[in-house]
Write the structure tokens for this entry.
Amino acid sequence: MIIEINFVGLIIASIMASAVPLILASCGELITERSGVLNLGVEGMMIIGAISGFALMTVTGSLIIAVFGAMLAGVLISTIFAFLTQTLITNHVATGLALTIFGIGISAMIGKNFVGIPGKEFPVLFGNLKDAIPFLSPILFGHSIVFYFAFALPFITNYFLKKTKIGLIVRAVGDSPDSASNQGINVRLVRYLCILYGGAMCGLAGAYLSMIYTPQWIENMTGGRGWIALALVVFSTWNPIKILIGAMIFGGLTIIQFHMQAIGVRIPVQFLTALPYIVTIIVLVVISRDSRKIRLSTPSSLGKSFYKDN
Amino acid sequence: MENLIKIIKRDQPSRAIFFLTPVLAIFLTLLAGGLIFYILGFKPFEALKFFFIVPIADMYGFSELLLKATPLCLIAIGLSFCFKSNNWNIGAEGQLTFGAIVSGGVALLFYNQEGFYILPIVILAGAIGGMLYASIPAILKTYFNTNEILVSLMLVYVSKLILDYLVVGPWSNPEGFNFPETRQFSDSARLPLLAEGLRIHAGIFLALASVVISWFIFYKTYLGFQMKVSGFSLKTAKYAGYKGKKMIILVFLISGACAGLAGVGEITGPIGQLHREVSPDYGFTAIIVAFLGRLNPVGIIFASLVVAITYLGAETAQIFMQIPKYTGQVFQGMILFFLLASDYLLFFKIKFIGSKK
């Protein structure tokens, strides 16, 4: 009996592990969107983070340099987006798409020399407690530090937005850039910083995939997770805590396909792989149906450029 | 010393600059591309030559250019209907794939038959397939208020998995030694090739027809006018009493049909069967083509030729200089970056004023 309970615990733990990159990227994007900026380049920033982390780990041998390097790479690539949309006032949607196309190309170009190289083992915390408590141990212990950070992030983000002054400023800029500007807030600067923060989180999400989750470099390895992360932000109605729930659902869908195949359920593998994408669409429909609710929770200036005549 | 340059907002976007900035963007992309080649340790001029000139230096190369430009042009024309009216259909790749699936399925029904009627049915099936697939984000957007960007994109992944399932499973060639591909279509289901020894096929006429028809719709019909107004301001469009929902669905259907036709061209042209990779991301690249062509049918012709070179150039540069083929994608991303950036000149004038001492 104990073995079975442990098995359930292990499944939950694996669902949580596959939810990590979604939580990180969504929470980052949520801050960006809360400031009124729609960055569709999540997939591109994640893949850049993935290759940067893996390449730095292989070249320098240092996991710390690799993780922070991946975040920095996310920041750098999102700077392009920030400069274009904030300084040159370009269209958010088109710029984000360009970022994704560019990111996938660049990552494949850099990654050419890293295909087939095995990853390194990433240290886990509380590894010695792995068998201490049945069921709970595999869920609570023996994960990487990024894992714990990811599950704390929605709560930190929530606290930041609701309880801190800077959080209030971010929300003000997103909901009413004109009033914020009249109050002496530098709208452009706030948005720049929110975009760069989103880039850092997406970079970390990518690094988690290539360094901890998979761990190796595979071309295009984000496989649409960036887009699912974007959908999660809509799903959450811009509420960080709900991102946690959404990410667990999608993590569950990813894990279930492996187990269904293992049990020998006779459903074509392609259908199971397509499931997360199909469910994303269904969930989006259910959430968005109530247009009033969406309108109330969407940052009012989302995707709109702000220009102030000097 | 005061500022030497001053930035002034233009009262009206400049029309000359509207068509000049794409040229500027291409120039800047070449410059940045040369720089990237240099950083990667290649001779920049030689690399650019292999990338942009060698591939189209002979007749065969030129026909290959037209071959790649055909689907790009077709899809971009379709997308321009959506983008002009503020509908962000970014799932053309999925609509292309689904169009290819439906037309391929129909072509397989006739695999052992010949007849003049087969090709038109196959082409029509592709267009319908693309329209069906595009109608999903359109209907969800209009009736369920669902974000069309995310839905159309998710459907791309779904369509590729459907295709994969079909060519590996039920539609795979019974005599094909388990290769992930279908039977060869009969000759009657193939778009005719235009010249002996070249791969260029009659699909190019579909692309040209789409250019003419879309030009007519954009500039000579009420629908074109409505799209333009909705693109500028949805509020104005509503105020004027345009049927917004009907238009959204219509532009998605047009866009889906074009992408579906591009899919037909890919499978009934040079290949003649369905297999896993019907399109090297033409659907995504066409988004860049649509913008580079300024959502103008004639502009899109030129843009599709320019962007098609990045496909060929990437192959040539890989063969001759071992430059990774993804450089093509990097170039495509850069073109769009530079194009969007140079749009700044549309709305702002940069004035050089003498230094004050």
